[in-house]
Structure formats: structure tokens, C-alpha cells
Specification:
The protein has 660 residues and is α+β, with helices and mostly antiparallel strands. It folds into four domains: 164 residues, Alpha Horseshoe (Serine Threonine Protein Phosphatase 5, Tetratricopeptide repeat); 268 residues, TolB, C-terminal domain (Neuraminidase, 6 Propeller), CATH 2.120.10.30; 80 residues, Carboxypeptidase-like, regulatory domain (Immunoglobulin-like), CATH 2.60.40; 107 residues, OmpA-like domain (60s Ribosomal Protein L30, Chain: A). 24% of the residues lie in helices and 30% in strands. The strands form eight sheets. Strands 14, 15, 16, 17 and 18 form a five-stranded antiparallel beta sheet that branches. Strands 1-21-20-19 form a four-stranded antiparallel beta sheet, with no helix packed on it. α10 links the parallel β30 and β31. The longest helix is centred in the first third of the chain and has 26 residues. It is elongated and about 125 Å long.
Length: 660
Amino acid sequence: MRLFFLIFFYTFLQFSLLHGQPTSDSQKAVSLYRKGEDALLKNKYKTAIQYFKLAIKLQPDLVAAERGIGLGYEGLNDWYAARQMYASIIEKAPQFSRLLYYQIGELYYKEGNYKRAISYFEQFERLQGLPLIQFTVNGEKEEILERETLKKLPITFQACRMALDSSHLATQSNVINLGSSINTTADEYFPFITNDQFILLYTKRKNENKDEDLFIATNNEDNQWGNGSPFDNQINTIFNEGMSTLVRDGRTLYFTACNRPEIKGPCDIWTGQIENGQVREVKAIVDHPNSDSWESQACISCDGRVLYFASNRPGGLGGTDIWVSVKQKDGTWSNPSNLGAPINTDKDEESPFISNDGNRLFFSSTGHIGFGGQDIFMSSFDKYRGWSNAFNLGPQINSPFEDLGFVLTADGLSGYFASDRPDGFGGMDIYKVNLQSQLRGDLITYVYGSIKDSLTGKPVTGTINSTSFPLVQVDNQGRFFLCVPANTSLPLIITHPGYHSQTIIKDIPEWNNRKFYPLKILLVPIELPLPEVVKPEPIDTAPPLSSNRFKELKRYYHSLYFQFDSDILEMGEKEKLESYIAGIPSKFIQRVEINGYADDVGDFKYNLDLSEKRAKVVSLLLLEKGVEISRISMKGHGEIKDDRPKPLNRKVEIKITTLE
């Protein structure tokens, strides 16, 4: 907008001079004005203001110079001084330029005074009823600029009204600049915060002539950020790198690499594996996400299965769009799909971020109705309706300037983003904002599991089946990671050759995710060796006539009964179980066999699952009573078909073998 006004300043200056006799002072004023205009174009705003003021001293009616002073103050982000200057022009010459009314409205908008902004926008609109010839500045360039401004006037009105209605997401006092240890006069942007909120990854560019690099900073116990420094040298090169994100298990990094010889397009999405704080196996993503177009700013779903990114590849709606690719069973990435409307527009949509539950997508856009150059928006996903219309996060997060790169913390209570708003240290700065709960989506708990041999403690690889998740692979260290809805039950079936399969139903609580919720699983070998029965030596001090005592295997049996279609053990049955186990010396227990059953009412598979659940309930109760998990084996046998009363078949049978 500023450059458009500069285009016709010179025209108006000529107009002013043609209507008066050239004098020595006026010629000097022209020279000073041109120096001021040149300084404006070079962003030397203070110098420009000084030249314009000197020109006005020599020629007080040089209104173009007064407008130049206003633009200089705008360049310095001094909205109040710029607005006062424009208002002074209108007070002296109300019909100098209709566009000045719009300019004043924009400045009120930037100051957050939306009602006053609307008032001046309405004045600009009403003045369209007068012929342009009645205004001092009425040339062709003024007319062209007015037409462009009128096209966006409805959106401008809507943005102001939306700002008046959007105060419920955050308060201005909650938006915090991260300070001089992170932010500088250079550009810092695209933040990502680790689960524990102690490590910040971000992109930094010192100036237009420098390349982008990935930086890292750490937060101490006093919540103070240390100075940022370049990230791992496996990542940064002489080319551009940045825009990083992590899978929430902390072991896989995604970032953008540009201009390298190995890439397909101007920029590609790369990945690296993190072990013990070191990045290894740094390489470009294979398969479909990368193309010969620009791909950048990737974000990954909580479980690492869905990749969102920005691209200008063919097939989009215009500008840069947000695309999505899904990891397939063989580990490759699917052909990306454009998210389409209502997320993408004919302008630019970039910097996506997906919430823990996968149902909130945050992104930056110049195509949706906003408060400034680029705003942050959110769209919610519904399995029946798809993605919702984009929702602006409001004026407490968005500003009249560039706002982008929004990410949530693992607990969903805070967000980080970048902005070039005027209260920063210069360029783009990184900010933190405390949020209302409706932005974070449904609560998710990060479950970090380990599977080990119950006897040796060594890691066991294997496969985990669950009705709630796709097939879960366990790595060679026995580790797996799941993003589980909080306050729900997690059903898992763990299988591995040579071990008893184990069915687990674990209640997953609400968790702040700064640390993982731990889930330790011990698999019992199928061939569980029993200790040898050793015939003890006779004890010389035995009383007369007593028999010598030998250790021997003993077996204790018990049955527990359940209600119809239930895996909940009634209180009376629990008390019987407690009496049963109390009579068995736990130190002598060698093996516990738990077998679940159901009656034959209903579906066979359903009854099989129900029998396994009943066996699991009893297993957990025995664990609570101090029985070692390595001694327990359990199995659900499904339904019993016989002539006995059905309540007698809704049971769990326990056999405990001791060596006494």
C-alpha cells in the first residue's frame, strides 16, 4: 500500500509546483522532497521524515511532504504519529484525498481500535458518492488504487467485526515475546517445542543475504531460555534448512532442506533419527511427498502416521496449498492429497500443525479473512462432514502484521508462533501464548511401552494388536509408542513366538505429556522351567518318631463366577479369591494358570473375547496380591457347551502350583 502512494506523490508534487511560481525556496523544497522520497524507498524512515520536515519549512503548503511524514511514521510502526499526521491533513483539506480516510482507518485497526477503524472505513465508502474530480488528488493512479481498495473493503469490514467478537481465545497479557536470548534483530520463526517444554527448535535467518538454519535453545528450571545456537551439523549446511517438527515419541525429526544437490525441487522434506541426543540417518523422504516443486513446512501427526506439508505442486487451488500423505503398511508414504476447500484458497496456505487428537489443523493463510498480512487459522475435522470452515484465532493472537508457524505444546495449554509485530526485537520474533482449552482438541495421553522377557529382562520385539489402533510394531529394543485418548481403556494383545500371548486392558488416565505415561509388559516364556525337586538331607535334630520332610509340588484349585455378559468380579467372589490366595504361601508359588470361560449364549468370537477379559481381571487381582507376573499364564477358552446350568460356565478357573 505504501508504494502505491509513493507512485502518485511525485505526480501531486508536480501538480503543486505547476500552480505556483517557482522560487528558490520551492526549488529547494522539491530537492528535499525527492531526497525524502528516496529515503522512504530505502526504508530509511527517520531520514525521510527529516527531509520532508525541511521541505515543509520551505514550502508550508506542500501536503505531499506531510503525507510522506505519515508514511515515515508508519515505517517506524508509530501508528499514533502517522494517524495524527493524516488527520491533520484532513482537518486542513477534507477533500484532499478519499484514500486518506481509509489510511486512517487502517491505522486505527492496527492500534486495535476497531470501532474507530470501522467509522473511517465507512467515511471512505460514503465519499465514493462524490465525483473524484472534487478531490485534490484525482489522477488515474488514484482512481486505480481506489478501485483496488474498494475490492477489499467488505473483507476489511468483516475483519473488524470479527475482531470485536473474538476475545475469548486468549488475552493480550498472555502473549509473551520469548526475549533476547531467542529473538534478535534478525528473523526467528517456525518454532517447535519438545514434550517437556525444555527444548525449542526454530528457524533463523540473520539477513536477506544469509541462509536459513535450524537453531536450538534450552529452558532452565527458572523458565528462562538460554541463548539459541545452531542445531546438529548433520542438519545445517551452506544451504537453507529449517521448519522442523518431531514425532511425539521424540525419535524422528522432520525438517526442510533446500538447494541441495540431492533434492528433487527447490525445497524437499527430509528426516532424521534421534538417539541419545544425536541425529542419524539424515535423508530425504522417499516416495511421493517430495516432487520437482517446492515442498516445505512439514508437520507430523502424534503417532507419526500422517504427514501434512505446504507445496506449490500442480493440482492445488493456487499459490501454496496444504497437502497430506499417509504412511502405509509397508512404511512408504501415499500419494499426497490436496486438503482442498475450505482450508486451501487461491492465495497462500502454509505452516500446518495438527493437534494431538488429529482433529484440529492450524495453519497460516493470506487467502482467508484476517487482520493483517498473514494470519493463523484453525479447522476442525468431523468424520461425517470433513474439515470445517477456517476459523481465525482472533486479534489477541493475530495482528495486522505477519503471523505464522503456530504450534501447540504437548499438553495443549500453550502455543508458540512467529510474528513481525512492532513490539519485538526486529524482523520475525517468536511468541508464546496461553490458550483456552477449546483449541487443543480431545485430551490425548502419550503412552510409551516396553516389552521384556519376564525371566531375563531382555527386550522382546513383537506385534501388538488392538481394536483401537492399527498394527503396532515394536522396535528392536522392545519399545512402542501410542497416542491414546485420555480416560479410556486401552486393549492390547501382545504375541511373540515362544511366549504366551498376553491380553492387556489398561485404563489410561489424563496426563500432561511432559513425560510419557509408562506401560511395562512382561511376556512369560511358554517353556517355563520348574525348579528341580531336591530331596533334602535328613535333619539330625528332628524329634524322635517324626518323619523326614521333603519338598514337594502341591496344587491348589479355585473357581470364580461372573454375572451374565460381564467381566466384573462381584464383591463376594473377590472375597473368596482373597481367602483362597491368603492360604497359599506366596514364596512357594511356582506357576499360576488362569483359564477363562463363557456360556454359549451369543457370538463365538464375542464369547472368546469375554473369556479373555475375565481371565485378565483375575490376573490383575493376583498381581495386586503380590503374585509375580513371571509366574502367571492366562488364556481365554471361549464358550462351554454342555448340559450344566449356564451360570456355572461363566467362570475363571485357577490352578496354582507350589513347591513346599
